[in-house]
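Objective 1.3, modelling of assemblies. Example input:
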Amino acid sequence: MKRRDFLKTTGLMAGASVLPMLKHLPASAAGRDDTIVVVLANGPNSMDIHRKGTNRPSYAIAVNLYDRLVSFGTKTLANGTSMYNYQDIVPELAESWELAADGMSMTFAIRKDATFHDGTPVTAEDVKWSFDRAVSVGGFPTVQMKAGALEKTEQFSVVDSHTFKIDFITKSKLTLPDVGVPVPIIINSTAAKKEATADDPWATEYLHRNPLGGGAFKLERWDPGQQVVYSRFEDWKSGPLPGVERVIVREVPSASTRRALLEKGDADISLDLPAKDFRELADGGEVSVQGAPIENSMTALGLNMNFEPFQNKLVRKAVAHAIPYKEIFEAAAFERGVPMWGGESLTPKDISWPQPYPYDTDYDKAKDLLAEAGYKDGFEVPLSFNLGLADWAEPAALLVQEGLGKVGIKSTLDKIPGANWRTKALVEKSLPLHFKNFGGWLNYPDYYFFWVYQHGHLFNSMNYKNDEVEELVNNTLLLPIEDPAYEPNVKRMLEIAFDEVPLIPLYQPFLDVATQKNVTGYEYWFHRQLDARSLGKGTV
Amino acid sequence: MAVAEHPDSAGESAAAAWWRHFRYVVSENPVTLFAFILFAMFVVMAVFGPWIVPYDPLASDTANALQPPTWAHWFGTDNLGRDVFSRVVVATRLDFLIAFSAVALSFVIGSVLGCLSGYYGGWTDRVVGRSIDTIMAFPLFVLAMGIVAALGNTVENIVYATAIINLPFYTRVARAEVNVRRNAGFVDAAKLAGNSDTRLLVFHLYPNILPPMMVQISLNLGWAILNAAGLSFIGLGVRPPAPEWGIMVAEGATFIVSGEWWLALFPGAALMLAVFCFNLLGDGLRDLIDPQRRT
Amino acid sequence: MSRFAMIGRRLAQAIPSIIGIIVVTFLLTRALPGDPAVYFAGPAADEKSIAEIRAALGLDKSLFEQFWLYLGDLARGDLGVSISTGRPVLEELATRLPASLELTLVALIFAIGTALPLGILAATRPNSWVDHLCRVVVTAGVSLPVFFTGLFFVYTFYFLLDVVPSPLGRLDIFYIAPDHMTGFYLIDSLIAGDLDTFGASFAQIVLPAITMGVFVLAPLARMTRASMLQALGSDYIRTAQASGLSRSKVLFSYAFRNALLPILTTLGMVFSFMLGANVLVEKVFAWPGIGSYAVNALVVSDFAAVQGFVLSMAILFVLVNLAIDVLYTIVDPRVGIEG
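Predicted structure (tokens):
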């Protein structure tokens, strides 16, 4: 299976420590025990998660090359996949933390032996500078910080060189988890300040290309558009040292090529394959496929309240009954997911989330509902989806089109390129019928409702407004889950969502990853990027 | 004195003479005959397609998705269970539509522009020439991509984009040919006979420049289909579920590695045959109309 | 007229086209759907931050003002910053252009090396089965979409037969690019005396180059055949044959040299065509060239990148045509230098 014999016979034998002076290294790349080769569709476009316009794959840089104060523990799913445990917050840069007696501030004790990649010791000054930066740069990072009620630089203070304090504006169960998401990275402020200018006080120009972190890996090279290579930071103190010496992340735009590379053993890990390939690889048994349901996320259809027929609840329910759920699950998701249809009743039994909505494919019922609503002859509606997600969205759209056609609703497919999708779907909120796939980082149903069901919020592409939901969400976000009012509030939110159905869930998608059998330690994380710190290579 | 009739053509009508010439050309070049037969077959498929196929090209059947070719489904089924054979046959219509409209549009507009600029010269020539150079300086495919991305991927826009990028050739050829003949004897004679410029252009010059362009038309037809296929590959082609060879190949291409070769092979073969046919047809037409320019 | 004067005149003639291209590209990119400000603002951004970014990018100004600013930037050699990659467009082009050029040139060499002999062969045996076979073969090559051929090659030669390395781009993972001299890995590695890297670069470029080359065999072969036929039918060839010169001398010293002119024209056309066809091949083979860059930029409405790409392609096209014209005068001194 391993080729590259010409490499073996002509290569030099040298240790990885001599790397910069070598022209090439011997043996097949993916076979080396201390290196992992990852292939994905798109690579990072910046080393700085705080920068405007940074894409999702760049979050992997924040995770691997930078530390945060805290992180999340691990748990194992029934199917053997490891994933992060959002209920278990573990130390990373902070050794310990303490909630004040009045519950309005938290103090973090920073590890004394931690250093950045250049050897400078990490101090609370660095933490403050970094947190200040996160809430000041605007854009996505600031919004994400705000979700955990981290908004003003006044909240952050240095108690002493290794003690950092956050004062709360309001008490929120989301604050501590928000400190563990990729955004609040700890940057080497001494080095960064040297690169700052009057116009650029946060050194964004420099940090865009040069990470100044203290994470488990350091940057070896970055060829934008081609590859990123990280190598292990031997003096990392915030956790157990990574099991691999180097991680090479290679950008390969064609999915077929990624699959071919994996199957031939030239790649160790492949992300971003179509669901079909994951299923086939899983069935094939040659490589290991690990899938975890993406938390707090559903692939769904959004029905826009600004589109007249959808203003009638009966029409929305009719649509919910006219969708061929099972066929979509098979042909678009290839069963790599959890079904979200066929719930038992309009009243939720518990607050597990996501959970199936009480709708099933029933074309007769749909027709009756349409007739009752006064749309006996149906109507026309464009069905929009993001071109970038065409892998699953196109087959799903075709099936929805067929299903709706059976009850008299004529839909035309509208493929919208990625750049335009955000504008039309989320900013203008002008798409009558469209696919949605929002996934919240903080795994609480009220967090999902905050983003998706509250009027005017970014991911409420349905223009849905319900006063009761507004009040419920606002109250519930602040409640800890142990609070007696928490569960009834969430149940009521779900009840309204079930009945009003401006959003029709289809399934909860898996995040799949395919790896060679000797790759160990893969964990699913909510940010959906590869956390390389836990990876290792065992013997098959 | 009466003009002596050529003994061989005594009693032969123009049509019969043409037919004789045709048979001669075809016998010289059997590949041309093959191309004509293929073309006829495609035309039949385009016109009668939807009525002669066994399955509805749009009907999905996910239980039978991704079946290899069998007697029930000659070309197998795709990822939604649709019959590939039906889709390939019905796609002929859309592809031919795109190709013929685009080429017709660019031929008509291009040759008229070229005629005018070749005949009148001066500013007309300069303006047209510079515009054409501007179009030609764009990498053709990128220009098509840009136009479709800007205007939206409907069939009309694909046709317009393809027409625009093919425009320069017709303009240049028309201009060159008219330029050469502008001062020819028959033109002077027509002018002296009192023909207006317009009549001159339409009835005397234009028909004379048609032969060299006929060949390029058939080559362009093939290129137009390939262009649409390329656009589909990057996601700017026709909208699903419309069956079109290019988009079927582009989507089927991702299934090759997992072993479902039939999704891409059959539309790819149809595409290749059609383009092949147009190319060879071009040669045949050239032999028929203008034998001196054979390549 | 001296050659330099001719070159100068040609360049001057090209200027109106370039101006036209700048205007058309500018308008075209502004017509693209998608709002770069939204894209730039990132996920979860709200109205306020989007408005801030729009102002920062200068997108809230009138179209005319934006065009004026763009021209000013161009004059300073500033092609803007690419939204999607965050690097200056000029830098991106400088790194990616050599990749595409190298691919195009190798493909061209392959195409010439295959098409010219085929064309000459067909010309020496007109209307024989060899002639027809040549025509069928090259026409078949041009009848398939280039991405289909590419994927088919990847499947056959990499996946099934294992004769080429993985299609991961210009160089395999464990090789480090040779020191930058020309930007062409093949040449740079030879300059550095590094045969291993040369071998590795060559192994990576073979398949994409052949894929592209196959597509342009037809026009080259057919033009060669046609102009060779014409040359072979002329009087001076008959004289040469009557004088008893050897067949190969007649063919190559006399006929071929005279047939070169139309072949050169076709070469020019073919080359500029390939610059565009790059886009599809680069996607299949993960080749980090300007084609794939342009497609990505287009899909995310990255104005600066698209404008920079088209402008550089247009200038390249002008230069290539100029080079062809100069080659004309070298090959055939009779060729007038008049426009």
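Chain B touches chain C through 49 residues (CB under 8 Å).
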